[in-house]
Fold this protein.
Amino acid sequence: MKRGFFPLLITSMSLAMLGVIMVQVFWIQTNINNLERQFELNVSLALADVSKQLKEREFQDYLAVYQKMIDSIGAPKASQLTEVFEYIDRSPSTNKTYIYQQGIIEDNYNIYPQLFDSLSKDTFPIFDYRTVKSTMIIDESFEDEIERMSSVERLQRIERMPNLDKAKYESIFMDFAAIKPIQKRLSTIELELLLRQELQVRDIRIPFEFRVFDGNRMTLLGSDNYLAYLGQDQFKTPLFLRLDDSSRYELRLAFPEQSRFLFSSVIGSVLLSLFFIVVILVVFGMSLSQILKQKKISEIKTDFINNMTHEFKTPIATINLALDALVNPKVTGDQKRTLSYLNMIRDENKRMNTQVEHVLQISQLEKKELDLVKEIIDPMKTLKQALDHIRLLIDQRQGALIEIFDPKLVKLNLSKAHMTNVWVNLLENAIKYSPDQLEVTVSTHVSDDFFEVQIKDRGKGMSPSVRKRIFDKFYREPSGNIHNVKGHGLGLSYVKQIVSLHSGTISVQSESKQGSIFTVKLPLN
């Protein structure tokens, strides 16, 4: 992978992910806005229908009473009623209702002008026109009459009233109704029932508060809790509109749970969108993690190949030099020098074989194919064997080896060879990473539950970031292209896995330039 391609890929994926999230958020917000507009439209339509129904109900009540009065007065007996004018009046002082009727009646007697003048050419009959006038006084008011009439009786009388007459008297009835107080024109119960009915028809089933206003003054018509929501956004509609679209009264409606209702309407789609967003984020994170892991594996592979090449280059070069020396006639006759070069070839070959064995052991550990042959032994035997192996290395560096052993004897079920390799790896690391003053302290402690071994050095130590990764396979502290410390990053990974296979634990304490302490605990049971 090219160096610039990986950042470009991550940036593209991040921007695409951000774009998907922004689209989802925009869609959710748009959906909520559409629901708000739909809610406002439905409420407005409901209020308009309530206002219309109240006006029609009041008008029909008046029409029903008027029709009953007309029936009681009776119509003029005539050949043809060409026009009738009616007027209703009410005297506040006497509480009486007056109905005036006046019209023109046309009588056709089938008499033609030729009867009086034989020479006349007029073929139209002679008509007689006369006026008719009647007045009726009703002591009961319209309100009392409306209350006495049943719903069926009102309906029957309204059906008898022609639409032309209804339109003709609408203005008169509206003027008459306008002088009445609002409390006599409708009730809180009627208003609440109509509001609830119209809102439920539009699937709005949430609590509401309402009040009728006379201009900016509140009337007594409305719900008791309306004042608690006086400052909330409200819906308004005029009541009892006149012919000129003016109105004295206004109905105001508030929904205390409007936000909750709108949110509950979209909660399903919102949760579904959030679920998919989370899924996309998880997939994106996992994909990014895998990409980073693959990138790191690629880097580790390259670093491992470089390290292995460096580790094998020295023994191969040494073997080549020894072989060149052996073919030299001067060396061939010298048995001592020949044996020395042969021993050198054998040691370097053994060293390369050890490197290969480490790699194979790690591979077997990864595949869980490593067969540990355990036996009940004294763990100190493996530790002392490892110390004997590295003692010469310490002496060559003129370093100090401090041994502090617990005198208590214990027996553990261990793989002798592998546990010896564990101590050797830890001790070799202490030597390799102590570039200046070499001092290694090995101590043991036996408790009721564990056999504990501590290996302490005064080397260069580790930073926190390095300390977290030292047990990772192939990991080595970055040092550029300088290979001043031998190894291929498998030792501590091998150590950790062997200790784990013995049900033990390994930990490290280290500070940069302060040295390191490795602690291995093996359970006694």
Q: What stands out?
A: The first strand starts at residue 80 and ends at 91. Confidence is low (pLDDT under 50) at residues 75-87, 135-140, 480-488. The two ends are 51 Å apart (CA to CA). Residues 5-73 form the longest helix (69 residues).
